[in-house]
Amino acid sequence: MQHKWLKATLFIGAVALGLVGGQLHQVSATADTDVPESMAFSRGAFAANTDGAGYMMVRHADGSLNYMISDSFKDSLGNYAYCLDSERPTPVGQTESKGSIGSDAQYRLFKYGFNNHSATDQEYWDIEGLTDQEAWYATQTVSWILAGNFNWNQIVWQASQPGDFADGIYAPYGEAAVKRVRAAATKVYNNVMNNHDTANTTMTLADQGETEVQGYHKFTYTVQSNQTGTATLNFKNIVDGMKVVDAKGNAIANNTVTIGQAFSLLIPNSTPTGDLTFDINGNIKAIVPVVYKDAAQKYQDSISLVTGVVKPLLAGNKAKWTRATGLIKVHKVDQNGQALTGIEFTLEDNLGNKQTALTDKDGDAQFTIVVDRTYSLKETKTLTGYTGSFQKDGITLANDGQVFSYTVVNAEDVAVHTTATSDGKKSVDANKQMIIDDVVHATGLIVGKTYTVKGQLYDKATGKALIVNGKPVTAETTFVAKASVQDVTVHFAFDGSDLGGHDVVVFEDLYLGDKKVASHADLNDKEQTVHVTTPTTPETPTTPVTPVTPSTPSTPAPKPTVYQAKMPQTGDAHDNVLAVLGVALVALVSGFSGFKIYKKRQA
Q1: Which DSSP string corresponds to 350-385?
Q2: How many Å apart are CA 290 and CA 82, to the nearest integer?
Q3: Residue 151, preceding peptide bond in cis (omega within 30° of 0)
Q4: What are the two backbone dihedrals, phi and then psi, of residue 508, each rounded to the nearest 5 degrees?
Q5: b/e burial code for range 433-467 (CB count within 10 A of at least 16 → b)
Q6: 3-class DSSP assignment, residue 449
């Protein structure tokens, strides 16, 4: 099996709008990689397995030189493996158990050595005449160095010669072959030691932004890695109606996304402000070096390059959103623009949810609305004495922060009340130059507008218009309203000499232009009524009766002789004076009595 090598690239995740906790995660292969638990080995195609068959010797501390011999072998995956202990037999035909994950340097051994680069890859090797066996042996030499068998400076590059060994056995590779192996080993060793490629796997979450799409908050991401594989989204909280979709909008099964391919989280924009927390569990294929060990320590430990499954974790990611909200503002005024307090408005959405609010001292009330709802605003309680209503349907929020403002006018009820008097009194004697003043109290006026009060007198007894000299009695007054409540006086002047005993009622109509806006016409309203009385004629005093001169008395009959008074006689001087005085006294008393009777009647 030939490994397909990938250039390890470090992806830097962009932490953008809507992502909290987006992070770069570099996974240690030693801790997070699933690889085969055991490995069986078989013989490979190359060998330098007898004394004198090596391409170089190692100088030991005691000064002795030993040729480094080896047999090539392959793992059960079909890839060439390398031994880690030059003093033991190769594990051909053996099965060894998984030990540790190899180092980054051993990872680079496979990347820059054989068999990732065969001898024919001259673009890489640039060594004329190089064979696969020489490339393999050069790579095995570096593997011994990395395993600590010896160091580079202990190597003596020398071809074996006849007589170097007592048995006379040698491999006639020659100096040219040794030079090619040395050049190949130098290339592999330098690349291993001077480069920084790692077997570790990187994984990031790149945020590609948030948009609003067809009733959803759309958060788009890509899980990126220097390897291939998948990642599973593990949600810590669930939002009703949420979706996980691919770039084409198709639902993603089991919340498992492909590394390197964009996916989106869709959150209904009717969802209250909040966030969605999720972890990302990677399931990534990675090429890693793995050490396999012989439990009995009889055969060489070996290192194989295998494709494992790395499971990195990106924890605590958050997609955050704010539900789009707006305001409905109502300003309530009367016909003159003055604020009205305590007016109730009700807001109802298409789901039947209701809110109510009363206007404050400034005539203001407001409601908070959210996206994905349709609202109806209605005035549900109006102040007594005012007319007018308001309703607005189909209010829908389009943008976050949008404000709908409405000014609603309730006109105060226009009304008139009157108080009629004559010379300030509610009763008056019938007379030819009668005057009635009617004070009209008007409410609900629009300041600055011109009004006319038109009045007419009615006879309460008949219920009909009062007719004087063949005409109805009318009067009117025109005025400009200075306030919503204002008093004006309508002046009636007419001949009322024939109205004694009648009740006169004043009817009033209020006009704004040609339109009658209010009326007061109540025959039984005492405030509109003036009573007309009939004046009383004084009695003529009685003429005093002239006293009658007494006749001469006849001669009295004879009286008893006991006593007889003497009566005055006609012609008697003394008696005449008394008679005159008596007549004068009677006349005086009669005159005085007549005068008293006259004055009493006049009063």
Answers
A1: TTS-EEEEE--TTSEEEEEEETT-EEEEEEEE--TT
A2: 11
A3: no
A4: -130, 140
A5: ebebbbebebbbbbeeeebbbbbbbbbbeeeeebe
A6: coil
Amino acid letter at 410?
A: N
Domain over 415-533 is classified CATH 3.40.50.720: no
Read off the tokens for 129. Answer: 């005449």
Q: Which tokens go with 581? A: 């005085």
Which tens digits make up the pLDDT trace of 373-417? 899 999 999 888 888 889 999 999 988 889 999 999 988 888 899
* Same-fold call for 325-412 versus 415-533: yes
Domain assignments of the chain as residue spans, ordered by start? 39-194, 201-321, 325-412, 415-533, 538-555+569-603
Task: Express each pLDDT in 549-583 by its tens digit.
Answer: 555 555 554 544 443 434 444 444 444 544 445 55
Q: From CA 257, how far away is CA 219, in angstroms rounded?
A: 14
Q: Residue 392 pairs with which residues in a beta bridge?
A: 377
Q: Residues 302, 304, 308, 313: is their CA dihedral positive or negative?
A: positive
* Strand pairing class (529-533; 427-429): parallel
CATH number 2.60.40.10 is the correct assignment for the domain at 325-412: yes
- Give the predicted TM-score (pTM) of the model: 0.50
